[in-house]
Design goal:
- Helix content is 34%, strand content 23%.
- The protein is α+β, with helices and mostly antiparallel strands and 272 residues long.
- Strands 1, 2, 3, 4, 5, 6 and 7 form a seven-stranded mixed β-sheet that branches.
Length: 272
């Protein structure tokens, strides 16, 4: 990526996101604290400084670097929020039913310590194929979201990285057919919920949630009804270090899922 990358939370951007009822908007101070903690983690974890020293100059007042990465707490979140603001209005413009989807494909489970081997491109291509099939049957389909990972800990103590995708989708496809379209192939573990679909009640929040970046530790528990559930908490610092080091190797917005949009520089255009 060439040229300086703007990464400031401008008053205009914040006002637009507030109009769209996006909650929990970050402040420059919050991002600075997260950036400082991440850089300290890199140093503590022995990550060679040459890989992250370009991030030391970031302060939320415009990117000083000619090359950035998804690890930057200023560059990635702000770039994504700008696209969230655009996607919000474009998805509403379709006047199609809106769903929020979470899709987990067990085939992409990745061992602890091997997150850099995750095939992010494979995950994205697989989801795009499924979206194309939905569109082929039900007409124009538009989706905006991103891939992320969580640290999964099973009841027997086994742990691994669990990649998944969150995205908002505008389509005429009914719920049952949409869920079937995203269901992973092959046998699934008992109690697994690989596809969760909910009607969108607040599109701004759905879009901003779909692009969150902080990984969670999800511990398998037995729920109150005897079904398998997950207790969430922040990951430990070693897992956080592996996650942030993974992001160092990605470009800003590389985790995004887009369907039914054309990206022109930092603008989205709805495809009809």
């Amino acid at each position: 990526m060439s040229g300086p990358l703007p990464n400031d939370l401008s008053p205009e951007l914040l006002a637009e996101l507030e109009r769209q009822e996006v909650r929990y908007l970050p402040t420059v101070e919050t991002l600075q604290l997260k950036q400082t903690r991440m850089l300290a983690g890199f140093q503590r974890g022995g990550v060679p400084r040459r890989h992250w020293r370009h991030l030391e100059a970031c302060n939320g007042r415009g990117c000083p670097n000619r090359v950035c990465s998804a690890a930057c707490w200023f560059g990635e979140p702000v770039a994504v929020l700008k696209l969230v603001a655009q996607a919000h209005d474009l998805l509403e413009e379709t006047e199609l039913p809106l769903w929020f989807a979470t899709v987990i494909d067990p085939r992409y489970a990745t061992p602890i310590g091997a997150l850099k081997s995750l095939s992010l491109d494979g995950m994205q291509q697989g989801l795009r194929r499924r979206l194309r099939r939905v569109e082929g049957t039900w007409g124009p389909t538009h989706a905006f979201g991103a891939c992320e990972v969580s640290l999964e800990i099973e009841r027997d103590g086994a742990s691994y990285w669990g990649p998944h995708t969150h995205f908002a989708i505008a389509t005429r496809c009914p719920r049952a057919a949409l869920k079937a379209a995203f269901m992973p192939a092959g046998a699934l573990p008992a109690g697994a919920r690989p596809v969760v679909l909910k009607q969108v009640t607040n599109l701004g929040n759905a879009l901003s949630y779909s692009n969150k970046r902080a990984p969670a530790e999800r511990i398998a528990i037995v729920g109150s009804r005897g079904t398998q559930d997950r207790d969430k908490r922040p990951v430990n610092w070693q897992a956080g270090l592996e996650h942030d080091t993974w992001l160092l190797g990605l470009q800003p917005t590389e985790r995004l899922i887009l369907r039914g949009f054309r990206r022109v520089h930092d603008r989205l255009v709805l495809l009809r």
